[in-house]
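User: I'll paste a sequence; please echo it back and then give the predicted structure.

Assistant: Echoing your sequence first, then the prediction.
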Amino acid sequence: MTLSKRLFDITLALLLMSVLALPTGVLALWVLIRSGRPVFYLSERMKTPTEAFQLWKFRTMTVASGDTGVSGGDKTARITPEGRILRRFRLDEIPQLWNILKGDMSFVGPRPPLRQYVERFPGLYGAVLQSRPGVTGLATLLFHRHEERILAECRSREETDSAYAKRCVPKKAYLDLIYQRNRTLCYDVVIVIDTVRRVFRRH
């Protein structure tokens, strides 16, 4: 990560934290009242092929022991009513500002993968994770909704895993590597703005 990209991340994260402090507190209280504890969902993700970190999000599902893997149609019934709203506007990802400030993530980059897929596709993620994982990115902009449709059709953990591994991982990696070859600070700014624009346009 270049110094300019890191400074951009820190500056924007601090700015958003100050602006969103009150709304974040309100959302946390809302989740607590409606869904109970825990308010936050922590998930192990990979920062590099060998280094993991805890990704922070607002909890959007009912708690289930042994919950692993990506979210597919097999988990849809567990999404809470408030969780649907948080996901719809990507408000569940606000706590990731803390991950950005810590240096686990950037605003723009590949979405941080689960350990199981990094271990299953070491060559692929060895290349993808040369970029710091991000909250948004080229693959998020161009493939996220298609990925949602693919996984929504799955009715078991095994089916979700197979669909994600075969139909999503290679295509997302292809887009992540295109970003990696063309990344600049200006490109990051464009992706951030386009992400915000698409969230509001979609809803």
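Helices lie at 3-35, 81-88, 96-102, 115-120, 122-128, 138-152, 157-182, 185-202. The mean pLDDT is 95.
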